[in-house]
Amino acid sequence: MNSGPDTLPPGRASAERILTILSCFERGDEALSLAEVTRRTGLIKSTVLRLSVALLETGFLVRDTQGNYRLGPEIARLNLIYTEAMRVEHYVIPVLQSLVEHTGETASIYIRHGSYRLCQYRVNSPHQLGVHKQPGDVRPMDEASSAIILRSFGDNGEHKVALKLPLFTEGVSDPYAASLSIPVFHSGGALLGALVLAGPCNRLNAERAEEYSDLMLSSALSLSRQLGGEAAFLRALQAPL
Description:
The chain is an alpha+beta fold. It has helices at residues 10-23, 34-41, 45-57, 73-85, 88-103, 145-152, 206-211, 213-227, 230-238, and strands spanning 61-63, 69-71, 106-113, 116-123, 138-140, 167-170, 177-186, 190-200. The strands form two sheets. The chain has a six-stranded antiparallel sheet, with helices on both faces. It has a two-stranded antiparallel ribbon with strand order 1-2. A hairpin with a 2-residue loop joins strand 3 and strand 4.
């Protein structure tokens, strides 16, 4: 049975077509011509013109001097509300806490900060002997796993270097410490940072890192999914080595 927009109730069909127009805009688009909107949406020109009237009146779209469509100020207003409501730490901290509970090691998120990597979120290991740092601590962009992850993915999520994920290193920043890292992405496919599990080399060795591999993969996937970056995370896993 056909369940396309033409078979839906009129109100729902119109709503879905309006959403189709808005969602046809992609990253990097400044303005779209009427012809391009019709091409991307698959709607006929008269339908786009009719539905765009409501979008223009409510501020979701504006038309420039060339008659092309641009996203309007109402989109920016809603984006601000969404950004303020979706506090990233509300999603990050439970994932870090779960990693610590399952492994006993320290879990954190590192982001790139100029020529350094910065610990943005952290849940420390309960062990007295462990890697204990605090959010805001900075480390060099050396050959530690988190630094390699941050160098290997651009801010917009593009791959610079293909890696086997998660990535394990030991004895780099600290001769007695090891780490296991994997990228996490958020809305638009942008790189949030590196999800890192860190501990002393005598506990977090290569064999233990292999045991934690599936846990790191599922944690990074779950967090990326919650933040709107699942597709980018799956692309990172599928990149050829």
